[in-house]
Amino acid sequence: MNTSHFMSKRVCRQWGLTRHADCQREAGSALPSPGPELQIKAPVYKRVTPNGEIQKLIITEETAKIRPYAVAAVLRNIKFTKDRYDSFIELQEKLHQNICRKRALVAIGTHDLDTLSGPFTYTAKRPSDIKFKPLNKTKEYTACELMNIYKTDNHLKHYLHIIENKPLYPVIYDSNGVVLSMPPVINGNHSKITVNTRNVFIECTGTDFTKAKIVLDVIVTMFSEYCENQFMVEAAEVVFPNGKSYTFPELAYRKEIVRADLINKKVGIRETPENIAKLLTRMYLKSEVIGDGNQIEIEIPPTRADIIHACDIVEDAAIAYGYNNIQMTLPKTYTIANQFPLNKLTELLRQDMAAAGFTEALTFALCSQEDIADKLGLDISATKAVHISNPKTAEFQVARTTLLPGLLKTIAANRKMPLPLKLFEISDIVVKDSSRDVGARNYRHLCAVYYNKNPGFEIIHGLLDRIMQLLNVPPGEKKGGYVIKASEGSAFFPGRCAEILARGQSIGKLGVLHPDVITKFELTMPCSSLEINVEPFL
């Protein structure tokens, strides 16, 4: 066996890496012999004040109700290449999608400082009063016109909702009235960054001050490496509406103290405090043993805003030690695992539903408002549906409140199959619940449909009897029994609907679907359905 190939696979698997084709060697090419460890010192990031006038960003009080916070910094004498430039743009996009929460919390603007004149003003104006050339455009547009243009832009349309219903839009000007950006939507074309840009002005605006500072720190620390004075970031002054001024970026180093025995206990290793300090230093967390010899002082750089607790430091120590090097041990106490009762009940019901001749379907948990309301003869406000705030398509606007639409759409897609079509699904539905901390809760439902030239109500009724028999629920109104009572429902044919009562509570309905419902789901034959909540039977 190729030893080098095996070892490289093992190392990559341990560290979560992917081998590149260039790294794969021939069988005769052995791994290099062990030698002195290559030690690369962690960079020290510094904020410097310019010799001349410091760049200033002034925030006006008009921004208070829309995006009240802003921070700024300057990367001086940076040298871009094609790869560095592409990476610079990609970094901003990644930050926007993650910590910035799709620009809702923070929006990043980067500008060619040599094309601008400070000080800069961050304010808010009526959309009709904002006019400029947006990025990669040659014509000036008002903010209103831009919002209409970008409604069809696959990239920018997702950010319009953040400000489009506001009376004022945020905007940043330089001292000559040139628009730098209209956050969080688009930058101005005048200060566009290119490969030839040498001085970059970075501004981050948002609704979360802490996140804005973190985002700014991430950008300047990653790209100050390419400045003439490496890891040096030029400060910028931000003046808030109350007159107070602050200097950014913060680039703050902070220190934490963690006990070595805590790290050993949590990771499951037995290392000396000195060795643990070396492991953490290897992770760019400069560490040293202090105090009684069991305490480790860790210096956390501005690049590690993710470290907020001792457990985060423990995790880094485990990574440096190597997960595969941690000795596996048996638990000191015996634990017996059990299947979640609701899932166990679900599995048993699935098997028996299949034995009854029904085919299982798995449908989407998200659907359109029409599916759970209009097509079933209901008003959307009466469904207690959980709405998706920014759905990608009209097909995924809400979380389903019933399993019936998904099965009917499945039948519609399989109308050419031989009749009868007998489908079922056992899955969760979601409804609003103000008593829950998340404002909603799940219920496990069972739904079955029978589609044929005749309604087949007796088949659905028989299926209900079989389900109750399996659940040891006897028929009748006695304690612990079940009955069906005549009822009405907008989705069912008048006089062909019944409510199912079991153990003293309503658990669902069964009946023949209304012709309007059948037509709206593009079906042409009668259909009967059954849907119950299975959780009361646990």
TrEMBL record:
<dbReference type="GO" id="GO:0006432">
    <property type="term" value="P:phenylalanyl-tRNA aminoacylation"/>
</dbReference>
<feature type="domain" description="B5">
    <location>
        <begin position="251"/>
        <end position="328"/>
    </location>
</feature>
<dbReference type="InterPro" id="IPR009061">
    <property type="entry name" value="DNA-bd_dom_put_sf"/>
</dbReference>
<dbReference type="InterPro" id="IPR041616">
    <property type="entry name" value="PheRS_beta_core"/>
</dbReference>
<dbReference type="InterPro" id="IPR005146">
    <property type="entry name" value="B3/B4_tRNA-bd"/>
</dbReference>
<dbReference type="Pfam" id="PF17759">
    <property type="entry name" value="tRNA_synthFbeta"/>
</dbReference>
<dbReference type="InterPro" id="IPR020825">
    <property type="entry name" value="Phe-tRNA_synthase-like_B3/B4"/>
</dbReference>
<keyword id="KW-0067">ATP-binding</keyword>
<keyword id="KW-0460">Magnesium</keyword>
<keyword id="KW-0436">Ligase</keyword>
<dbReference type="GO" id="GO:0003723">
    <property type="term" value="F:RNA binding"/>
</dbReference>
<protein>
    <recommendedName>
        <fullName>Phenylalanine--tRNA ligase beta subunit</fullName>
        <ecNumber>6.1.1.20</ecNumber>
    </recommendedName>
</protein>
<dbReference type="GO" id="GO:0009328">
    <property type="term" value="C:phenylalanine-tRNA ligase complex"/>
</dbReference>
<dbReference type="InterPro" id="IPR045060">
    <property type="entry name" value="Phe-tRNA-ligase_IIc_bsu"/>
</dbReference>
<dbReference type="GO" id="GO:0004826">
    <property type="term" value="F:phenylalanine-tRNA ligase activity"/>
</dbReference>
<dbReference type="InterPro" id="IPR005147">
    <property type="entry name" value="tRNA_synthase_B5-dom"/>
</dbReference>
<dbReference type="InterPro" id="IPR045864">
    <property type="entry name" value="aa-tRNA-synth_II/BPL/LPL"/>
</dbReference>
<comment type="similarity">
    <text>Belongs to the phenylalanyl-tRNA synthetase beta subunit family. Type 2 subfamily.</text>
</comment>
<keyword id="KW-0963">Cytoplasm</keyword>
<dbReference type="GO" id="GO:0005524">
    <property type="term" value="F:ATP binding"/>
</dbReference>
<dbReference type="Pfam" id="PF03483">
    <property type="entry name" value="B3_4"/>
</dbReference>
<dbReference type="GO" id="GO:0000287">
    <property type="term" value="F:magnesium ion binding"/>
</dbReference>
<dbReference type="InterPro" id="IPR004531">
    <property type="entry name" value="Phe-tRNA-synth_IIc_bsu_arc_euk"/>
</dbReference>
<keyword id="KW-0547">Nucleotide-binding</keyword>
<keyword id="KW-0030">Aminoacyl-tRNA synthetase</keyword>
<keyword id="KW-0479">Metal-binding</keyword>
<dbReference type="Pfam" id="PF03484">
    <property type="entry name" value="B5"/>
</dbReference>
<keyword id="KW-0648">Protein biosynthesis</keyword>
